[in-house]
Amino acid sequence: MNKKYKLMEHTYRLVISCPDKVGIVARVSQFIAEYGGWLTEANYHSDAENQWFFMRNEIKAESLSLGLGEFRAAFAKLAEQYQMQWYIRDSTERQRVVILASHASHCLADILHRWHSEELYCDIPCVISNHENLRSMVEWHQIPFHYVPMNKDNKEQAHQQIQQMIADHQAESVVLARFMQIIPPALCTKYPGNIINIHHSFLPSFVGANPYQKAYERGVKLIGATSHYVTEQLDQGPIIEQDVIRVNHRHNKDDMVRLGKDVEKAVLARALRNHLEDRVIVHGNKTVVFD
Fold first, then answer.
1. 255 labelled catalytic
2. Catalytic residue among 168, 235, 243, 278
3. Is residue 1 part of a domain?
4. Which site from 22, 61, 73, 157 is most exposed, i.e. has the minimal number of CB atoms within 10 Å?
5. Domain range for 34
6. Whether residues 105 and 86 fall in one domain
């Protein structure tokens, strides 16, 4: 669904990662300045152990003397010189985000609220679920809701149907808002670094199902949530955001679930916002997040 948003500052986001060496910041800054570019935000990080460099710049769009296509063509020569992995994105272009959910409503409701109140700058063309109970909430936001029944006998067919729906809606990113099904490898391969999951545990502890039960049985004093990119390895993808809340011996499993829901919502929202604003750079199985 398309949605009107309040005017925001029009910038271009230049995101770079490359082997670290002397002069990268100076050369990129010089290039931008040569075309009149005005930097409104600049972030850098050097990974000394792996000798890798990360950069995110926001450039005032109206300040540049050339268009985005011309910028890409001109910058490609510099990028090749420094072996850069890079892209530049127009901040006014909304990503299309398809949301997958199951029975739990808290993460989906929070995302829809933030989208509706213009905290999340994206389009949500549809929500897909293997349960019907979330339909009325989604359709209240005037977003199409697709129900795909799923059981142990039809999982492969259901996943193929979901993958086709995601493609039909031209999604650039997918959010698993407590979608309690394992994503098949084919979907992970098609959208690398663009499927965001919320796991109701502070990974790497308590991977898989029922983490609150496991945490309760272990007698932990902190519970948390982790948002990460989905890979073929279950709950092992690059971590974007995490948070925790303190518990004690008085809290039972239901208390942990109740408290954990608040953490899950906040963690997923922060992860999605950083992703939409091109603040996350994946390198191997780790991320650099310029929040």
1. no
2. 235
3. no
4. 22
5. 11-90
6. no
